[in-house]
Write a structure and sequence with these properties.
By secondary structure, the protein is mainly alpha-helical. About 70% of the residues lie in helices and about 5% in strands. The protein contains eleven helices and three strands, in the order αβααββαααααααα.
């Protein structure tokens, strides 16, 4: 357990430094450097580097060490990479690119959910939007976020498309990132709450076109809000 904690902590630090540009493309890391800097064992340093390689952040070169790779090589859909990038100086650019992805995928996923969601999923969607309105209007952003994350994850799964379902962690990190970094209003906009309710109602009515339109309204609102930020 102690080794795992050390490994996760080291991974978080180095991953954030690479994705923020503190460790620029071409920078070289060695196991010895990591051991000295962080006071960890060679095993912990090696496991961390293996994970960074898996994420496309570094590549191993014999007699050189581990070299930081260009951003184009990163596994950009991994939730950890997204979280690190959202915490860095390129936060708004990352949010915009992820929101464009959501705009391309989630309306279609909502339509699929209207076709395929089972009764239990429909009931849960309706329950979640009721809770979202309650928490949103009260300004309880943490509780609102938990419901919002579950709402979007359920929609992505309910369409019975494994490609959409694979994006649940991506969308969760985007939603959490807006709240974590103070990019959400103190209370969700009434239009956004109405649109979430419209999505759930369209799924209940088995109305794919209505679900797609309502989800398009949600993603358009997010894109507009990000456009106001500089």
């Amino acid at each position: 357990m102690a080794v795992e904690v050390l490994h996760n902590g080291l991974l978080e630090v180095i991953g954030a430094e690479i994705t923020s540009g503190v460790l620029a493309e071409g920078s070289v890391l060695t196991l010895e450097q990591l051991q000295q800097r962080f006071g960890v064992s060679r095993t912990v340093a090696r496991e961390t580097m293996r994970m960074l390689e898996h994420l496309g952040l570094v590549t191993s070169r014999r007699r050189v060490g581990l070299v930081v790779r260009p951003a184009a090589d990163w596994v950009v859909f991994d939730a950890r990479v997204i979280r690190w990038r959202l915490a860095g100086p390129g936060r708004l650019g990352q949010l915009r690119s992820l929101t464009e992805l959501r705009a391309a995928v989630e309306p279609v996923a909502a339509a699929a959910a209207a076709r395929h969601a089972d009764a239990a999923e429909v009931d849960r969607l309706l329950s979640l939007v009721a809770q979202m309105r309650e928490h949103g209007e009260a300004g309880r952003l943490d509780e609102f976020l938990a419901c919002d994350v579950e709402f979007h994850a359920l929609l992505l799964r309910a369409g019975r498309n494994e490609m959409f379902a694979a994006l649940t962690d991506v969308v969760a990190e985007v939603l959490a990132g807006r709240t974590r970094h103070g990019l959400m209003p103190s209370r969700p906009r009434a239009e956004a709450l109405d649109a979430h309710e419209a999505v759930a109602d369209a799924v209940r009515r088995r109305d794919p076109d209505g679900a797609e339109r309502a989800m398009t309204t949600i993603t358009a609102e997010i894109r507009a809000a990000l456009g106001d930020l500089h």
